[in-house]
Amino acid sequence: MTPLLHVEQRNTILLVKLNRPDKRNALNDELILGLEAVFSTIPDGVRCAVIYGEGSHFSAGLDLSALTERDAVQGLHHSRMWHRALDRIQFGTVPVIAVLHGACVGGGLELAAACHIRVAENSTFYALPEGQRGIFVGGGASVRVPKLIGLARMTDMMLTGRVYQAEEGERIGLAQYRVEEGLGLEKALELAGKVAGNAGMTNYALMHILPRIVDAPQEQGLLMESLTAAIAQDAPEAKARLRDFLAGKAKKVGE
Ligand code: 1HE
User: Fold this and answer.
1) Is it the case that residue 1 has pLDDT exceeding 80?
2) How far is the CA of 24 from the centre of ligand 1 (A)?
3) Interface ipTM
4) A Pfam family this protein belongs to (predicted)?
């Protein structure tokens, strides 16, 4: 395992830390391949993962020092490598929560967007400086970021270099939660505990089926929904949970 990533299992939660603070967690090939390896081999018993960054920033995005050496074909392979790695996060075996602080820019935002839940500390700021650097996003932002904030906002971010601060970022959908500085990991662990307690089929459906339903034509989406609902309700775990509720033994909504 690369020392640029620190991985620790706490019961059913896997904590994955970007550990390159001197370079603001800029993502070089070693880090991207390390993330791909970690999310391709989630240990049995892990039910949720949390990604966070060491130092004063979540991630400054792509390591720009390597960019000047690539030609177009190498650039294509490099972008596809990012796609593979971030797909392992979005479509892996467990839901992933990102804890953001400081810079969440370029490839850092692409990494965050591949996670299922984003918790942003108040210092977080978001940008896609690719526009200003004369390049284009290559780590999946074109597909994932418009699903969070819409095409118009992403276009504006890249055309003008617009930076969203934490509060506005939460309002437009870049993060689902915003917390005081230093409290992001605690919040993520609280959420991870809830996620880990869900039925396996529910989490699988939310990670793998819901995004496909959203991308599908309505008729196919509705059919996929019905199939998923039927399979989910048939599981013994679902039946036991429903019996518990009807017997007054399960938590009510909001409890
Ligand atoms: C880096 C990188 C990097 C920092 N690649 N080395 N991303 C960007 O365009 C963002 C570029 N970075 C910044 O704007 C700033 O570094 C930050 C706002 C994130 C942080 O500022 P600060 O003052 O805390 O740190 P710093 O002094 O700018 O940087 C500290 C060191 O990290 C310094 O190296 P040093 O050897 O001089 O100490 C920086 O050079 C280094 N560093 N960011 C390489 N990104 C799949 S395609 C995705 C395409 C993209 O992501 S493009 C967007 C790239």
Assistant:
1) no
2) 6
3) 0.98
4) ECH_1
